[in-house]
Amino acid sequence: MSVNNMSIEQAYTLINAIHAQATGDTTLTATDTASFTSVAQATLAAGYEPVLNAITQVLNRTLIAVRPYSRKFAGLEVSGERWGAITRKINFADRAAEADATFALVDGASIDQYEVKKADVLETRYLGSNVYQGHYTIYTRQLDVAFSSAEEFGRFMSGLMTHFSNEREQWLENLSRSIVSNFIGAEIKINNTESVVHLLTEYNAATGASPAFTATTIRQPANWKPFLQWVYARVAGITRLMTERSGLFQQTITGKKINRHTPLADQKVYFLADFMDAMDAQVLADTYHDNYLKYADVEKVSFWQSIESPDKISLDPCVYIDSSAAVATATVAEDNIMGVIFDRDACGYNIYQNDLQTSPYNAAGQYYNIFSHVRVQTQNDLTEKGCVLLLD
What we know:
Helix content: 10-25%
Order of helices and strands: HEEEHEHHEHEEEEEEEEE
Number of helices: 5
Largest sheet: 5 strands, mixed
Strand content: 15-25%
Number of strands: 14
Low-confidence stretches: 1-9, 33-46
Structural class: alpha+beta
Distance between the termini: 53 Å
Shape: flat
Strand order of the largest sheet: 4-14-11-5-6
C-alpha cells in the first residue's frame, strides 16, 4: 500500500526501522520507504478541471510550486540600439615607428611636415539575428472549479507568470551557453599556440614526471593539490599577459596587426564548477589570498553544453576564415575543458526586441493569449583575447 493516494497509512513501522539504523541498533537494511513517502505525481484519485486537464478539482490546500530563476552568463548581455541587424566594429592596426627628423637636418634641404600617413583601419561586421517566442493562454472562467477562492486563483496566475519569466531566463541562459561553447570550439579549431593551453602536457613537461600524469592519475590526492597550485599560478600568468598590449591570445585576420590589451576588470573567467571548487578547497583554503581573480568577472559553470557531460562540447563552431565570410566548420568534439578566459568584447549578445503582447479577448472561448517575442543578436570575436584551458 502506498501513501500516494487518498488513504491514511500507519508509519510507526518505518519510524522504528529508521531509528534502529540511525542509532546503530541494526545494520544498514533495505527499508520500504515507498509505502510511506508522498512524491509528486501526475495523477490523483480526484476529478480534473476540464480545460487544462492537469489540475484537480478543489481539494484542500494548494501549493504553487514555482520560484524566480535568474539566468547564468547574464554578464554576456550588452547594450545596443533598437534598429538594424548589423553591428560593425572599427579596429585600428599598429603602424611602424619613424625616424625622428629633428636630429637629421641637412643644409639646403627641408622637411616635409605635410606628408600623409593614413590610419590603418579594419572594419568587422556581425550580421543577422535569432528570434523565438513563447505564449500562454489565460482563461477567465474555465479554471473556477480548480480553485477555492479568488486569492488562490491569483496565486496561480502569479506563479504562471513567474514560470513564464523563468522559461525566458533559461532560454537566454542556453543561448549564452551556446555563445561560450562556440567560442571554445572556435579557439580549439583555430588552435593558436597560446590560446589553447594543455595544462597536463605543460605540467608534465615542467615537472619531468615519469610516467607522465594522465587526466585520471593527476586527480589522485597526492598529485591533485600540487597540480592545482601550479594551475593557479599558470592562470595568473595568462591573465597578466592578457593585460599587455600585444597580438597574443587573438586571431589575426586580413593580415592586419591589431594589438589589443585586456585589463583584469575587462576579463571574463569561466571555470568548470568542480574544477574551481577543487582550487578553492586545495589552494585558496590554506591561507587568505587577495588574489588576481577578484578583479576579473569570475563565474562557475556547471557544464558547457550538456548537463550529463559537464566538461565536454560537441558542436560545429562558426569561425572566421581569412579572406572569406564566417563559416560553420567541421564538428569539434572535446572533453576535459576546465575553463575559458576572454575579453568582455569577445562574447556577447544584444536583445533588441523584447515584446510582451496580449491578443484580443476571445469572447466565444473566454480566453486570451500572452505572447513573448525575443529577437537577439549573438557574437563571437576571436580577434579579441581569449584562452581555453584543457586538462590534457
